[in-house]
Amino acid sequence: MQAGSSDNLITLLQGAVFAVSLICAWKIYSDRGEAGWKALIPFYSSYVFGRIVRDKPKGIALMISALFAVVSGIVFYSFLAALLSLRSSGPVIDVGLVLSGLCMSVSVLVFFALQIILKVRFVQNENGSIWLALLWIVLPIFGDIYYAFIHRPVKDTGPDPDAPASE
Fold it and tell me: What is the pLDDT of residues 129-142, one digit of tens each?
């Protein structure tokens, strides 16, 4: 098998996993009373997932950390490109490279930590076990498929604690 064909197979597999994840996210959102298209918008979907698990602050933090990771990654790779294009680096490029790399690393770690917290909260809201939450964190595609097509959502048990009180 040639190297090019194995690369194409890997790309095709990644595309299929991504497509299945989007379909599952659409179904999970729509089964819980949200419009399915909200799962397709990169940063907004984090906020909506926070609303689904009734933890809006963590959803907002997840959205901001994802956005910050993307922006700091762009800055990091800009400094890296400047460093590679110059024969010698100056202190501005060195400091910028270190600081933007540190910001990118921290924001990615925060993003993944918040995602884990929200998935555990989601599983608890759905009366699932902690083992299912761990499976969803380790093998995201299986958790997505389970919650989209196998598990039936738990009926709403009461008002959203974050919602304003109605009279």
Answer: 777 777 777 777 77
C-alpha–C-alpha distance, residues 19 and 27, integer Å: 12
Q: Give burial (CB, 10 Å; 0-12/13-18/19+) of 106.
A: middle
3-state secondary structure (DSSP) of residue 98 = helix
Tokens (6 digits) for 22: 């989007």
Domain that holds residue 81: 9-150
Q: Return d(Cα 133, Cα 42) in angstroms, integer.
A: 22
Does 161 reside within a domain? Answer: no
- The verdict on residue 163 lying in a domain is no
Give domain status of residue 19, yes or no: yes
**DSSP letters for 47-69:** HHHHHHTT-HHHHHHHHHHHHHH
Alpha helices in the chain (DSSP H): 3-31, 44-52, 56-85, 91-125, 130-138, 140-145
Q: How many domains in the chain? A: 1
- Which segments in the chain show pLDDT lower than 70? 1-4, 87-89, 153-167
Domain annotation covers residue 76: yes
Q: Which of 31, 113, 30 is nearest to 65 (CA)?
A: 113
Q: In the Cβ-directed half-sphere of 93, how many Cα atoms lie within 13 Å? A: 14
* Contact (CB, 8 A) for 138 and 116: no
